[in-house]
Specification:
Blueprint (H helix, E strand, L loop, with lengths): L1 E3 L7 H16 L2 H11 L18 H19 L77 H8 L18 H6 L11 H9 L13 H19 L45 E3 L1
Parallel strand pairs: 1-2
Helix pairs in contact: 1-3, 3-7
Amino acid sequence: MHIRQNQKNLTSAQKKRFTTAVLELKRNGTYDTFVRTHDKYFVPDRDRKLRVGHMSPSFFPWHRLYLLEFERKLQEIDAGVSIPYWDWTSDTSPVSSLWAEDFLGGTGRASDRKVMTGPFAYDEGNWTVTVGITESAFLTRNLGRPQNPIKLPTAAELQWAIDDPVYDSAPWDSTAGGGGFRNKLEGWAAPKSERWRNHNKVHQWIGGHMTGGTAPNDPAFWLHHAFVDLIWDRWQQQHPAAGYLPATPLARGDLQQGRVISLDEPMPPWNIPPREILGHQNLYRYE
C-alpha cells in the first residue's frame, strides 16, 4: 500500500526522487512505450473501432490501470516513489511550485513554446520527444495560453460534474446526450460558449504536447491524471448507489455496440474489465 500525495506537500527530496525515477524510465526506453500506448488508445468518436481510453465510459478505469502500471515501473527504480496529484482547482498559477525548476519546469518560451527550465528541458540533454514528433523533439508548453487566455477549471466546474448521479449515458461518447459524470469530467460536455471543461480544459491550459494523443510526453500528464483518478473516487463516495454504466454489453444493432466497454468486458491492453478496478483502496490511497 502506497500513498499518492498532493504535489504541493512534497518535500524537495520527494520531488527529486520522482523526477529522477521518471528520467530513468525515459533513459531505458520504458517511458516512450507508455506514450505510444496512450496514443494507440486515443480513439475519437468518428473512428469505427473500439474506444477504450477516451470519449467513452472506460475513460476512468482505463486510466487507473495505465497510471498504476506506470507507477509500478517507477517503483522498480525507487520503491519509495508514487505519482503525486495536482489539484488544478486550487493550484492555478503558472508560477506555482509545480512548475518550478526543481520539479516539472516552467512554461515554454514565447517563440516556439520550448520548455527551458527543469529536468525535462531539452537543453538538459535527458528529454528528447520521440513519439508523435510532428510538433518538436523538445518538450513544449504554453501555460495559460497568454495569447488567447484560458483559465483552469474552478471548484464549481468540478463540483458540477461530481454532482451528476449518473455515471455515463448513451450514446457513450463525447456527445453523451443525457449528461453523466464521465462526460462532464472528461470535458466534452461543454456549453457552446466554452469548448472545454474540466479534464480537457487542463490539457489545453498546459498546451504544447499535452494537447494530443501523445500527451504523456509531458510528465505533467501523470499528476493531472492522478487527480482525475481521485475525482472518480470522490464521485463514488458522493453517489454510493450509482455504478459504472453500461452495466451490460450493448445490444446488437446499437451503433456503439463493439465500440465501448461495459462493466465486465476486458479493456485492452490488459484484458481487465472495469469491474476489477472500480476501487483502489487495496492498492494505494490519497492523502
